[in-house]
Specification:
alpha+beta, 5-stranded antiparallel beta sheet, disordered N terminus
Length: 238
């Protein structure tokens, strides 16, 4: 999550500093735009490829859509949800990330500046499976000896999102952009399936769920959202 925001910020800053004389002559009004990108940084075998399509109504106003394809991610030691269990001995963690979709409007108030993004965002159901090794643990004040498997499911849902991004327009029709547009404070309610190689007391199960719920709501990455980094091409109407 922090890596995504940092990358988007770096791209925005670099693009702003590299504005050339060619870019000052670019006219966006009445041009269609199609593009490709990533909804997740290519870390841990993840890509989440995406496609974009939209129309520049004026030089400042753009309307379009972003669609991101489902993907599978090997979170392992980078899993925020696994760390929120407060359990040691993580063996592996993998997440099945569903499709993302956003119908958006973008407004660029200042020439060559960042744009404001707002619209409706849809995230499909995400599921993460975490496996923990066989050892003795104290969970919720109870001693437990055995291995654990935890499945956390985030339900699908819609939300009204608003965020920020930046697009750098080359004079040859190509553009690069990055944006982060979340549905602020619109957290889904996750569900859990917890199994063990030995009997797990109910108090221990409740303790794990409580820790994971607290961790879930503390991370902006769990809000319904769209993160996008990519490039596009403009088709100007004559």
């Amino acid at each position: 999550m922090r890596t995504c925001i940092l990358t988007a910020t770096v791209i925005i800053c670099c693009c702003k500093q590299s504005i050339s004389q060619d870019n000052q002559t670019v006219v966006l009004k009445r041009s269609w735009q199609v593009g490709l990108g990533l909804g997740e940084l290519p870390i841990g075998s993840s890509f989440k490829p995406s496609v974009t399509f939209g129309y520049h109504i004026t030089d400042k106003l753009y309307a379009g859509v972003i669609f991101q394809f489902p993907d599978k991610i090997n979170r392992n030691g980078t899993s925020f949800n696994a760390r929120s269990t407060n359990l040691e001995g993580l063996v592996n963690s993998g997440e099945t990330v569903a499709q993302r979709f956003m119908l958006q409007c973008r407004y660029t108030p200042i020439q060559f500046g960042p744009y404001l993004s707002a619209g409706l965002v849809f995230n499909g159901r995400d599921t993460e499976l975490m496996n923990f090794d066989n050892r003795t643990r104290i969970i919720g004040g109870q001693v437990h000896d055995g291995s654990l498997s935890i499945t956390q499911t985030r339900p699908a849902g819609w939300g009204f999102a608003c965020g920020i991004g930046y697009q750098y327009n080359f004079s040859n029709g190509f553009s690069v952009n990055a944006e982060w547009t979340p549905a602020w404070m619109q957290y889904p309610v996750p569900t859990y399936t917890i199994s063990s190689s030995t009997e797990l007391p109910k108090s221990a199960i409740n303790n794990i769920k409580k820790n994971m719920d607290n961790g879930f709501k503390s991370s902006p990455t769990n809000m319904y959202k769209v993160f996008h980094v990519g490039f596009s091409y403009r088709l100007t109407q004559e």
